[in-house]
Structure formats: structure tokens, C-alpha cells
Amino acid sequence: EIILTQSPATLSVSPGERATLSCRASRNVSNNLAWYQQKPGRPPRLLISAASTRATGIPARFSGSGSETEFTLTISGLQSDDSAVYYCQQYNYWPPNTFGQGTALEIK
Amino acid sequence: EVQLVESGGGLVQPGGSLRVSCAVSGFSFSNYWMSWVRQAPGKGLEWVANIKEDGSENYYADSVRGRFTISRDNAKNSLFLQMNSLRVEDTALYYCARGGGSSWSPGHFDYWGQGTLVTVSS
User: Fold this and answer.
1) Among partner residues A55, A100, A101, which is closest to B110 by beta-carbon distance?
2) pLDDT of B101 above 90
3) What is the pLDDT of residues B29-68, one digit of tens each?
4) Distance CA B50, CA B103 (A)
């Protein structure tokens, strides 16, 4: 089973600044990695697939990068609405379709 | 507009059974892998099961294999999860999700329902 480790667990960033979230895979998952945003009381929303492809309607402020075992989600020009928990998920080796434990982003 | 609407959640005693459903609209259901993903209160996301477009293949998390059964009715645009021998640790919000991958893999999950809450408690 692939283990995804996200860091940091929590992140506090000021509005307008940039947030960098990390996801590390225990094995090479190529570029088969997705990122999701989940706000309280809401279902997850797909942000990024194939490590760097933004989903429909996702603003360019959200960008994904990386391959193999190291991946990054970067959110620039942070807005208060970006407060959420962000999850990565790999789909190279499945089942299981594993998720990371999440990074909670706070806009202070 | 793509919509996924779960139903059927509720309170059940340990050892009991429950069947949750997901009604979909806005896309050709029979062309997509579908999945169930759950989230225990205050916890992260846990994948539960996948089913291929035609129902010919299904896969389960170790934590539910042998107890849960995923199925679909393509004529009725519906996805199901039959849950037997329920445990307290199965308490969670159960989401149905559409697979965004190819015909050989569900890939990522591009659309999600709002979830249905299953509570297992005596």
C-alpha cells in the first residue's frame, strides 16, 4: 500500500501571500496524484489531477507540481475563502486509492 | 450539471446492516467508474470501494472487504453500497464519487456527492 505523507499538518498564512503544501509518496507514483480542497461541512472538491492539471473552474492561483514521490500544491494570492483542509490522493497503485492525512490551511 | 445525491444513511446497531444509495444525473453514468469514500467525524478521507463502468469489476478496502458490497444499476443511474456486520468504526459520512480516470482505472475523483451519514451505535 502506498503511504502519502502531507506536510505541514497545519499552516497559517496571511492574505495575499503564498502557501506551499507538500505530499510525499512512499513509492514512485509517477504523476498519478490529485489534490482536493475540503471546506467544513462540504464534500471534497477536485483541484488538480495528474500532478499539475487544474480541474475545470479552478483558478490559476492553484498550481500543482512534482512527480514520482515528491509533490507540491502552491496557492498564490491567498484569500480568506482558501481556508480549508487540502488532501492529496494517489491513483497509480490501486487498490487502495490512498489519501494523505490532510493539511489544514488557515488564512490569518 | 453533474449531480450525485446520496441517501439511505441512518442509525444502526453494531452487527446490523444498511444500504446506502447514490442517484446520479448530468452525465452518462454507464461510462464511468464509481466509488465510495468515507470520512469519520473529524477525520480524513478513506477510500471504501470502486466499481467498473459495467459492474464487472469491484475493489474494496481491507477494512470493509467481506462485509460491504458495491453495486450499480446503469439503467437507473444509481450506485449502491450494501453494508453488513456494521461496526462502531464504520461510523462516517459516506460519499459517492465519480472516477475521472480511464476505462481501466477510476483514477482521481472529479465529482462528489454531499454524503450520507451512517452512525453505528448501540
Assistant:
1) A55
2) no
3) 999 999 999 999 999 999 999 999 999 999 999 999 999 9
4) 12
Option in A32, A96, A101 nearest B47 (CB): A96
Are the beta carbons of A47 and A55 closer than 8 angstroms? Answer: yes
Task: Determine contact, residues A34/A48, Cβ cutoff 8 Å.
Answer: yes
Cβ–Cβ below 8 Å for A49 and B107:
yes
Distance from CA of B51 to the nearest CA of A (A): 11
> 3-state SS of B74-101?
HHHCEEEEEECCCCHHHCEEEEEEEECC
Contacts of the segment A41-47: beta carbons below 8 A, 24+ positions apart: A43/B95, A43/B112, A43/B113, A43/B114, A43/B115, A44/A87, A44/B37, A44/B45, A44/B95, A44/B109, A44/B112, A45/B112, A46/B100, A46/B108, A46/B109, A46/B110, A46/B111, A47/A73, A47/A86
**Quick check: B105 pLDDT over 90?**
no
Residue keyed to cell 446492516: B17
Please choose, from the candidates B63, B99, B55, B97, the residue with its C-alpha nearest in 3D space to the C-alpha of residue B83.
Answer: B63
Residue B43 burial (CB count, 10 A)? 12
Could you give the angle at the alpha carbon of B54 between the alpha carbons of B67 and B18, nearest 5°? 30
- Kindly state the average pLDDT of the residues B83-112: 94
Q: Which positions ≥6 away from A59 have C-beta within 8 Å?
A: none
